[in-house]
Amino acid sequence: VFRARAIVLAQAGKTVTSIEKAVKAKLAAQRGGEEAAALWKGLWALYEQGGAGAVEIGLRELRELPDGADADAQEDE
Amino acid sequence: MSAATETARWRVESITLRQFRGVAQERTYAFDGRSGLLHGHNGVGKSTVALALQWTLYGRFQPGVLANVQPATFLAPVQGKGKASSGEVVLARGAERLVVARDGGAKTFTVRIGEASWSDAKAEAKRDELLGLDMDTFVRAVLLQQSRIRGLLLDEPKERNRALDRLLGMDAVEHLFEATKPRPFTEAASAWREAIRVEQQELEANERLLQQQLETAQRTARDVKFLNKDLNPSGLASRYDEVSRDLVALGAKYDVAVPPLPACAKPSLAPAVASAFARGVKVIRLGAAPQKRLAPVQQAIGSLTAARARCVDAAKTRSDAAARLAGLVEKHGEAKALEAVHSEARERIVALRRDLKEAGDLRQLLDDAQAYVSRARPKECPVCERGLPEGRDLAARLRQRAEAMATEAVARLKREVAGQEQRVAAADAALTELGAAAKDVETAAKAAEKAAAGGVEALGAAVPENKVAARIDEALREREAERQRLAQAVEAMEADLEGIELRQRNVHGVLLPAVAKRDELAAHEQRREEAKKRHAAREVKAVAMERVAGQLEAIRKALLAAKQDLASELLDLAVPRAKALYRRLVRQPVFEGLDVLVIPKAGKVDYAFQVTTASGAARDARLVLSDGQLTATAMALFFGLAESTAHALDLLYVDDPTQNLDLPCKEAMAKVVAEMARRRQVIVATQDEDFVTFLQAEGFPRDAVIHHLKKWDGNPTVETSLPGGEA
Asked: For residue B126, which residues of chain A lie inside 8 Å, CB to CB?
């Protein structure tokens, strides 16, 4: 759900800023950075949409924990 | 270059505010593409114009601004809470006019050029395309607000780094760097693997336990002679079939119809089979012929025993009563004889009492005569009139005679009366005893008759009374013999039932657990297989979490590298101009140079904001410069950054640039701003009338539009001066 939403946001014609481009370029230069680039695209779209809070929410949604694992406790650590 | 000749970049024609902060109704600030000056005292609505410009163009404020305030509440007119704000910014580029409008009530955003217009997301895309800058670039390259550089004056290096981040537009990098920590994902991966490990451990422990339980159950089953072939569901079914057949046969043996047990095709059916078995056993136990016959025999024995006891007791009571009566007769004689004695004694008493009365009368007579003789001393007898002899004391003789009668005859009569009265009392007592004994004999005889009648009834046949007990004894012997025979038959049946119950108990309590445990172990194997699939899926999730963690690590690395590159690039472009402006604005006698460097560190990128001497010695600017000098230095850097950023908006909007500055610095600032205003559109908002004077002295563009905000009463009162003295 998160990935799909992020991609939709990214395709909605938002401005690509120099930070977005620069990070993208840095990732392209990293070995195996293609997968990270896809994630970066989604995260940047979320950031543009709702700031760091939206990114945190998006990552929390992306994170899957087994039943019974306490997500908040892990974050507190 | 004047506004009229500029064709490459957009300039502000007008900014219109409606129900926005300090504007309760509507106010348009016209600039016609020229530079402008907004001046007036504090609180007349100058900063409102800068806010309106940013909000109309971008609809939001950078992160951290208005963090805890609802924008709609903040933007609503001061005197009209709840009213929706709207704004319109008109930009011009040569003959082109770009109208950007935002309506907070209708929640619409539109961009219009000539006849073409766009709305909402498309309008935002068009805006960015035309202006070539997003909001972050706008607030660091176009709109200078004191709040953007205030952090540079703070003592904490971390805060100063953040201020430089904001100035350079690198705060987004820091926000993202903070938000993209990979650790939660590595911890999530660990949690998935821990879940696998815990479940595996549980499964293995369960398997060991089940295996042990199975071995124990099978050993116990073999101990009670079950064979290996029995230790499975078909063996269990077969054993239950045997029990069922034998139970039916046992029922037949004792004349009881018992249905066969349901087939035990699997262990889970065993409880139902066991219940059916228990019912079958109960039916036999209660319905078997010996058992059914035994009860009436036992009842008859009970009745006969009780009847016999009653007969024996009654007969004994009767004989005791008769013996007692006989003893009394022997002691006192027959009742008739006693009654005769009694009558005779009574009659004698009557006679004696008469004699006693006569003796009394005679005595009285003698006493009277003696009294008379003593008193009258007669010579002759008063009765026969014969003469009394002389010399004889007649009174004394009468007295002697009366005394003699009193002592002898009366005493004898009284003794005899007493004797007779004793005889009467003895006869009465004896008669009473005899009467009571006779009554007891009668009552006992009746009870004996009744008991004999009961015995006859128990026997069920007419029997003479004297033979009842004997006949009861005879009947009891017969019944007891029958009871013993039936009891032996019942005992034999109980032995049969116990035998079959023992077999069923072994099947149910020993064989069944062994078979059930075997099934349980098989089910556990199935669960293990399912768990393997689950674990594989969890491992996939763990790997996915690790992959995301790796990606985030890569993104963070890229963010830091990008920040280093971008900040360095920006500073390379901006710092030369900033250095020149620093020298003009600050004029520090020792530290005449300015340098802003990017310092990469482990896991972060910091800055060095430093001033230098002619010999190249560098010091942290915060440690050397005053607040005013530091503000001016930050302004120099801001102007450098603004002038080095490429975009399509030919505007520099400076809100209150002279805070903390002394007069010489204000004058220098006025020169710098006036110079810039000659090259591009500069809009200055200030409350500082000295600065206004300096600006005018420096020839702040002659064609500038001056808005003097004179007072505020819900709406600002504005006096506008157009070039050439127009108003």
From this structure: none
